[in-house]
Specification:
By secondary structure, the protein is an alpha/beta fold. It has 15 helices and 14 strands. The chain is globular, with a radius of gyration of 21 Å.
């Protein structure tokens, strides 16, 4: 089967990986002919990355830029992709087109390719947009931008042959707010390749990041408004009474400078902010931490399942979560026994859950083991691959 991946974030597999690189690898390992369209840097060219043909397309900046610039980049991205695909693969006809959200702006290109080649279209739904932007106050419901993106969202649901949702809560939300054939929707959990360690020396890692002999609470990933890190800072401020505790915030985002200002203003001295590091080193570093943090904005009305939880589950550390009331991530934590949660804004409850984990190493070990078990049984790429191909009528392996 010929499979085209339309990607927005797709790191060089020779250097790093994410959810979608592992899925593309899984398709290749099962004998499929795979082409990936993804953003590039200086020029548009085909690159072979670990046996996968990746057409890297020169685009405008799309990461760590203002929302305005990111919006412009998203709008012209389909045009750039279409031009590159016609130039480099004029005769190649995909049987299956795989598209994730975000972004939603690739829908027109995906539908065009589907209609042109009579392909099937599989949507990996990881971002219910534009409602999440409304929740965070980025756009106004009923405004011109909202109406434009809402039209794209409806088109995507109508034209997708299959829609893989992160949880049952996602499925229920889509059906409640859209006219979609329920048969299209099914659960496709987040996924990641199984962690076995990448050889970084534990002692050296701890020394490098200044966490020797420390109880490390780690937060990894984007640092922006959706994460509402004010809750994390409030917890860190309380934990200054524990000299062994340090908070390690790993990643980037538009709110990093605001965080640094808040740390100085509140005189919070037990927080370290580290820019993004290679994925392999990141996972090795997580494995020597004691708690993995999740923080979701309290205003969300859509059921988010945070992808950063994958890494925590994978390396086997317990999760401490501050979440909104719409998500069903708390149900996952309760059912798996992999962590503790409280609602965003409820700092006393968050502090109390921290104390339970901080003071009970046996509980941390037990939850970490349950996290890893849940990962192995539900969140590996092979399961995601099987879920997707089981929905596709003809599969050649």
């Amino acid at each position: 089967m010929k499979v085209l991946f339309l990607m927005f974030v797709f790191p060089d597999i020779n250097k790093s990986f994410n959810m979608y690189t592992t899925l593309a690898e899984e398709f290749v390992n099962h004998g499929h002919d795979v082409v990936v369209l993804a953003p590039g840097n200086n020029q548009t060219a085909i690159k072979n990355e670990m046996g996968i043909n990746v057409l890297r397309v020169k685009t405008m900046p799309i990461k760590n830029v203002s929302n305005f610039l990111k919006g412009i980049s998203n709008l012209i991205l389909p045009l750039q992709y279409n031009r590159a695909l016609k130039k480099f693969y004029p005769l190649w006809k995909p049987d299956l087109v795989v598209i994730p959200t975000p972004p939603i702006t690739l829908v027109d290109l995906a539908v065009k390719i589907k209609n042109r080649h009579n392909s099937r279209l599989y949507l990996i739904l990881r971002d219910i947009f534009p409602q999440n932007a409304v929740d965070l106050g980025f756009i106004k419901k009923g405004g011109l931008l909202y109406k434009y993106f809402r039209k794209k969202e409806i088109k995507l649901y109508q034209n997708a042959d299959y829609i893989g949702c992160m949880s049952q809560g996602n499925i229920d939300y889509v059906l409640r707010h859209n006219q979609v054939d329920p048969k299209k929707l099914h659960v496709l959990f987040n996924f990641q390749k199984l962690y076995h360690g990448y050889g970084h020396d534990n002692s050296s890692l701890k020394k490098k990041y200044g966490i020797e002999n420390k109880f490390v609470v780690v937060f990894g990933g984007n640092m922006g408004k959706p994460q509402q890190l004010e809750n994390v800072l409030a917890l860190a401020k309380h934990c200054q009474q524990y000299p062994d505790v340090v908070f390690l915030l790993l990643g980037e985002g538009l709110y990093v400078e605001n965080l640094k200002k808040s740390l100085r203003k509140e005189r919070i001295r037990n927080v370290k902010i580290i820019p993004t590091i290679p994925k392999q080193e990141y996972q090795d570093l997580l494995s020597v931490c004691q708690i993995g943090l999740i923080s979701l904005h309290q205003n969300f009305t859509i059921p988010n399942i945070p992808s950063k939880a994958l890494d925590y589950f994978n390396v086997g550390i317990p999760i401490l979560a501050s979440i909104d009331r719409a998500t069903d991530f708390n149900k996952i934590l309760d059912e798996t026994g992999a962590g503790l949660w409280s609602y965003a804004g409820d700092i006393p409850s968050l502090v109390e859950n921290f104390k339970k984990l901080h003071q009970n190493p046996d509980l941390r070990k037990q939850m970490g083991q349950k996290a890893r078990y849940y990962f192995e049984k539900n969140l590996v790429p092979e399961i995601a691959y099987r879920t997707i191909v089981s929905k596709v009528d003809t599969v050649s392996e």
